[in-house]
Amino acid sequence: MTTENILTVEETLRNIVKKITRKEDVVLTPTTTFKELGADSLDVVQILVALEEAFDIELVDEDLKSLNNMGAFIGYVKKKVAEKKK
Amino acid sequence: MSLKGKIALVTGGSRGIGRAITLKLASEGADVIINYFRRTSAAEATAQEARSKGVNAHIIKANVGEPEKIDEMFREIEQKFGRLDIFINNAASGVPKPALELDAKGWQWTMDINARAFLLCSQRAARLMPKGGRIVCISSLGSRMITPIYTSVGVSKAALEALTRYLAVELAPKGICVNAVAPGAVESEALKLYAEDMSLPRLSQSTPAGKLVQPEDIANLVAFLCSDECSMIIGQAIIIDGGLSLAPMS
Ligand SMILES: NC(=O)c1ccc[n+]([C@@H]2O[C@H](COP(=O)([O-])OP(=O)(O)OC[C@H]3O[C@@H](n4cnc5c(N)ncnc54)[C@H](OP(=O)(O)O)[C@@H]3O)[C@@H](O)[C@H]2O)c1
Known about the structure:
Chain A is mainly alpha-helical and about 90 residues long. The longest helix of chain A is centred in the C-terminal third of the chain and has 16 residues. Chain A has a domain of about 60 residues: Non-ribosomal Peptide Synthetase Peptidyl Carrier Protein, Chain A, CATH 1.10.1200. By secondary structure, chain B is α/β, with parallel strands linked by helices. Chain B has a single domain, classed as NAD(P)-binding Rossmann-like Domain (Rossmann fold). Chains A and B meet through helix 3 of A and helix 4 of B. The structure holds NADP nicotinamide-adenine-dinucleotide phosphate.
């Protein structure tokens, strides 16, 4: 189990966003968008890759298109993590 | 033409043109190593299809934009296969923007994945080819012709073609032939990103051949460049575009 696995999805995501956007105060609320976090399209790709590595999951681009905010995004990641554990 | 017993690495070999190349090399008898970036399920599906042709297929997830991941990938190849006969540098990415809107980050991202990876992977691949081999990179007509938002990729492909010539001269005495293939518009998912204002029938009409290049057309050319029959084409960028560059939008 990696260190990321014992952190929650929210904590892991916050750490990754901090690292990639180089911002110290990253506040994730259910309605926050990647744009509001200061992440451009390349940052988003890097965030997705880092999450996939942290939890050993595959996030499907087609599924992601309809997820408009952090609430929906984190819910989707949690679903993938739960599926992986089965 | 037979590639029986050869071991081939195709970067970005899981989808699109890379997938067609992987399957063509497999159907000619080569064992294939499929590198990919994120979509494990697509890589597994392509590997399965390759295996159904009677060869070994192995997948490796690695972002070729990161030198450490390239190192890890080649360490795995060395441990598992011990050598390499064919290296296809196909993986590419880019930031679709006009030159005046392209920022340093987008430029660097594209150059790292498309151009620097070719250098670093070729260095490692050549070391695994003590008895000679073949290196082919997939360039693009955009290295010399202009498509509005293709700036970053077009420039990276120009670097790729220049590097092809340098590598070709350095590696020819070792029996390693290095060449580039430069496709025009290929009927693919990625094409939609750069030609969204053009319908497929209109794009097809834009080539003198009256049809778009298919991924399999690219794969056939790549397989020939990898064959023993092809040992005297060195450092060339071969255009495959249905005649588009000779008579654009005729
Ligand atoms: N399509 C065209 O019309 C056209 C025209 C001229 C030249 N080309 C060239 O042909 C080649 C293939 O293009 P395509 O249209 O088939 O592309 P594509 O459909 O977008 O496929 C890209 C492949 O590369 C992989 N990949 C992307 N970024 C990567 C990275 N950083 N590290 C490792 N693998 C990576 C992808 O893996 P995942 O799926 O896992 O992300 C996928 O297997 C490219 O060099 C492209 O520039 C294409």
